[in-house]
Structure prediction request, 792 residues.
Amino acid sequence: MSKRVETAESPPEPRREIPIPLDAVDRRTVLKYIGLGALGAVPLVASTQLMDGLVKDVVTGPEAAGLAAPTGDATTKFGRVRQWTMIIDLAKCDGCQSQGTPPQCTTACIEGHFAPQPMQWIEIYEAELSGGGTQFIPTPCQQCENPPCVKVCPVGATFSTPEGTVLIDQDRCIGCRICMAACPYDRRFFNWGKPPIPPEAALADYSPEQQTPASRGTVMKCDFCPEMVRGGTLPFCVQGCPNDAIWYGDFEEDVATNGRQIVKATQLISERNGYRLKEHLGTQPRVYYLPGHGEDIGRDPENEGRMPTEWPWIERAEGAVTWTR
Amino acid sequence: MDTMTNWHERLIRKTTRPTLVTTYRYWVWVAFLVAIVANGVFQYSKQWSEGLYVTGMRDRISWGLYITAFVFFIGISHAGTLISAILRASKATWRAPITRIAELITAVALVVGASFVLIDMGRPERIFNVFRYGRWQSPIMWDVMAITTYLTASVIYLYAPMIPDLALYRDRLANKVGFIRRFFYETVALNWRGLPSQVRFLGKAITIMMLLIMPIAVSVHTVVSWIFAMTLRVGWNTSIFGVLFVAGAIFSGVATLVLVMATLRRMYHWEEYLTPKHFLYLGYLLAAFAGFMIYVNINEYLTEGFKLEESGEFAFRQLFIDDFAAMFWFYVIGGLIAPIVIMLIPKTRTVAGVVVAAILVDIAMFLERYFIVVTGLRVPLMPYEPASYAPTFIEWSIFIAGVALFLLLITIALKVLPMFAVWEMTEEHELAIARQTEPVLQTGYEGPAPGVSGSPGPDGLTEGGLS
Prediction:
């Protein structure tokens, strides 16, 4: 803790040196070239063989589909496998009340992943504070290192990767839904009917890392965007957040970025009293929370409620049925 | 032994009656059941083409009536094991007329129960992934293994003691049944001639299966409970679930046996063989298991309710006071307390009383399975409004089709298979007569004292296998 790579303290008022276009697509493009943070600064070493070996050892199931295919593997310059993490600063999250929009992380995720309605792979829960008022908790899949869902899957369709994420192979999933019963965070979603997706989603090449197009009778969830990070961009939700509340990082090199700053991940967690959801369950999530209720961006905890999530492309999803959770 | 011959002939005449005589009422009944099953198949075809969207299940309550039916029918399948294997092992001679019906219920209920797992799958066409990619770490795989083992063992255990009866049918009914059934009996009787070597071999086979099937049956419903208990859900996350499920399985299995027995007794006038004594003994068994269920439930709810961890309050409130209170209290009062009361009061300690108790127990155990599945999933995991679940018309249609399939398979078996272990009943009857001639050995229904019976047949069977 003696050596400081970068200060982790957050300024009380939001910094706005770079004007951020609110349109998520534009912002995504901008970030793709300039906002790579730590990940862009480090040359990505391609070592398929190392990856293959690790996949065989760690990944459950003989040939966890799609994992061996990507060319750029997520390794550090020393050839070590990255350990993805997400650190969510609740002091900077107001559920996009100040934006007057639905939560932008969820919206960006839905636009990027074509997550079928009503799936919110990252969902903003509004939880009561002990002293009254509420806080907003953006909740992606917690990417447990001791994942209850992976343990119960009968066919190895959901599995842990060497990078510490949990993925689902929808080509193998039999739809028994025991993983949904097992997940203590309500972070798994089922395609009860023909999934409502826009026509362009059908053009995508399916892989467990990019769960598009969705298929009926299978389970989906947040995949932590590993293929995007390998390609040098931050996950959709990180890009979408107007308040830079979501940090994405790698424990292997101990860095995290919100697209604007680069910090030492462990230091940020420690100095801000980071915690994990339902830590007592022993699931060891890879998602950390820094306590707060949006106070850094001036939110009053008594100011409750947020805009409902929208699926902007839903009218283009022809012939599809939607359902409620 | 003239009376013995008469008794034996009457037994054969009465037990083969369903095989030989087919009334129009039988066909009406079969047509009725086939129509219900056909409707279930039709409703399932909708689910097949549109997905589980047609059910009331959604992300937060992602299991419902199908899984309830799965647990319920696998539970019922425990009737055969208890009655047949445990009573055989403990040499309770009164079991002889009811073992066949019990074993048949086991096999049929397993087939129906297992099919509900398939019905509940989002991708049933990928069922072979379970064998291609199966992970032994998954409770679902334990279930696949346990249930297939149990089904195999129950079919063998149903079949082996049936061989002498099938041979009897082959010999006696050769001229009375059509070509197909004659061929069937000739084939499945496996050239049984009642030779001493055959009797010894069969005795060994039955003994081995009897010993094997008890641990298998206990494991099956324990593993079914582990599907729930291996998760971190409030209400499911408890080590008593295995005991609760196995006890409940035998409980509902005995109740179902009583109901099937009562129906067949009425229809085919089998009062001589399915006597009030059988119903009373099974009634006592129901009462004993009701008491045990009360004990297990107190254990379950007190240890969790006393501490009231995390979402415990919500879990208890929905069960005891709110949404599921009617079901829960019917289960407690109608399913657990009423059977004990019925068996305690001499006036209700009758065949009719036991049948009423059995009906209550079966309904209560179905409701118990339902609220275990649904309440466990309904407890909110995150700050969201609790979800609700109600089975849709399609789900109910398929569930009722499952019940109809259960009845249909028994109805068909009635037409083909010997519903009584005629040879065992004959042996027991001979022994009973022998005991009456030697009053010193009259010890009620505790079975013959070893080595005194003078008949090498029955004792040679079980003991020969054990040694």
